[in-house]
Design brief:
The protein is of the alpha/beta class. The protein folds into two domains: 242 residues, Rossmann fold; 59 residues, no CATH class. Strand 5, helix 9 and strand 6 form a beta-alpha-beta unit. Helix 4 packs across helix 11 and helix 7 runs parallel beside helix 8. The radius of gyration is 23 Å and the shape is globular. Bound molecules: guanosine-5'-triphosphate and magnesium ion. Guanosine-5'-triphosphate binds next to helix 4.
Length: 317
């Protein structure tokens, strides 16, 4: 079976195979992604981020149920940069998400570190392309909101939900980590615990001081029993409407595309130059002269740069 045709026809085995291929970085993936690309752009991508243990996975599970009630199909990708596991749900997530995995309108995948962290964010984006082409109405991406990789992944979401809890320090941590700025909607989860209203008012006070055209709504949720989750889904829908009516969806997609194409060009250039430098005897002797303090790194780099044009002409194909 051709994978591309299979994915476009909605064949789940083809989708699973495609994901594995992307994760393993098989050369074939470029053709598949290229052929699928024209069939994308229809899914709504929702990012869920927040501190470890905030209840993100439980919330994703509830969101999935709520979307299913509304007749929407849902794909979930849980990204865990600290986990070496990949290719299937992580144990905890698997247990929590059991109800949903039996539903043919739901597809769940966890991704851990494989190779570089930059590689993780790239393969996550590629998996989003597969999900989108397959035709899911909603794609949910869950990450622990700490590092650059997570921020990078959240950059591909149309709507970012930041999950906070009444637990001590959550709000301050979030402010510090610059996560406040990426939120389109706040979910104050574990609202069954004391202190949820205090968190809501802290966030609102911060938003009073500054917010853009879109003021992020703050919704209390209990992902244990699903309280507040329908309201959260409504607020995500409101944000989506705002993105469309304000023309922002168009402009963020344009910006992402620009970054993607620029990134491909830069990666390719880096590969060419890195390989070329390895082969150049002159590079080695330049390094030696810098090491001997006979030359400074800038002058050495400058003399490399003068050969650049010639290298690109011969190596670029
Ligand atoms: N009291 C209470 N506990 C909750 C709620 N939601 C989740 N929990 C509990 O919080 C713990 C963490 O839940 P997860 O859904 O795994 O949280 P997570 O943010 O996905 O965790 P990581 O992926 O490990 O960062 C679990 O023990 C949940 O049962 C809630 O609304 N109220
Ligand atoms: Mg989780």
């Amino acid at each position: 079976m051709d994978l591309v045709a299979g994915i476009l026809e909605g064949n789940r085995r083809a989708l699973a195979k495609g994901i594995t291929l992307v994760e393993n970085g098989e050369p074939e993936k470029y053709r598949i992604l290229a052929e699928l690309r024209p069939h994308t752009g229809k899914s709504m991508i929702v990012g869920i981020t927040g501190s470890p243990g905030a209840g993100k996975s439980s919330l994703v599970d509830q969101l999935t149920k709520s979307y299913r009630k509304r007749g929407k199909t849902v794909a979930v990708v849980a990204v865990d940069p600290t986990s070496p596991f990949s290719g299937g749900a992580l144990l905890g997530d698997r247990i929590r998400m059991q109800d949903n995995t039996l539903d043919p309108g739901v597809f769940i995948r966890s991704m851990g570190t494989r190779g570089s962290l930059g590689g993780l964010s790239r393969s996550t984006k590629e998996v989003l392309t597969l999900f989108d082409a397959f035709g899911f109405d909603v794609i949910i991406v869950e990450t622990v909101g700490v590092g650059q990789v997570e921020l990078d992944i959240m950059d591909t979401a149309d709507t970012v939900v930041v999950v906070l809890t009444p637990a001590g320090g959550d709000v301050i941590q979030t402010l510090k980590a610059g996560i406040m700025e990426i939120a389109d909607v706040f979910a104050i989860n574990k609202a069954d615990l004391d202190g949820a209203d205090r968190v809501v008012s802290e966030i609102n006070k911060t938003l009073d001081l500054s917010h853009g055209d879109w003021r992020p709504p703050v919704v209390k949720t209990v992902s244990l029993d699903g309280q507040g989750v329908d309201e959260l889904v409504d607020e995500i829908a409101n944000h989506w409407e705002y993105l469309i009516s304000s023309g922002q969806l168009e402009s963020i997609r344009r910006k992402r595309l620009k970054e993607e194409v620029t990134g491909i060009v830069l990666n390719k250039l880096e590969d060419i130059l890195t390989q070329r430098l390895q082969r150049e005897d002159r590079f080695q002797s330049l390094l030696q002269s810098v090491l001997n303090r006979e030359q400074d790194p800038y002058t050495a780099a400058q003399s490399i740069m003068s050969s650049l044009e010639g290298w690109l002409a011969t190596d670029f194909h």
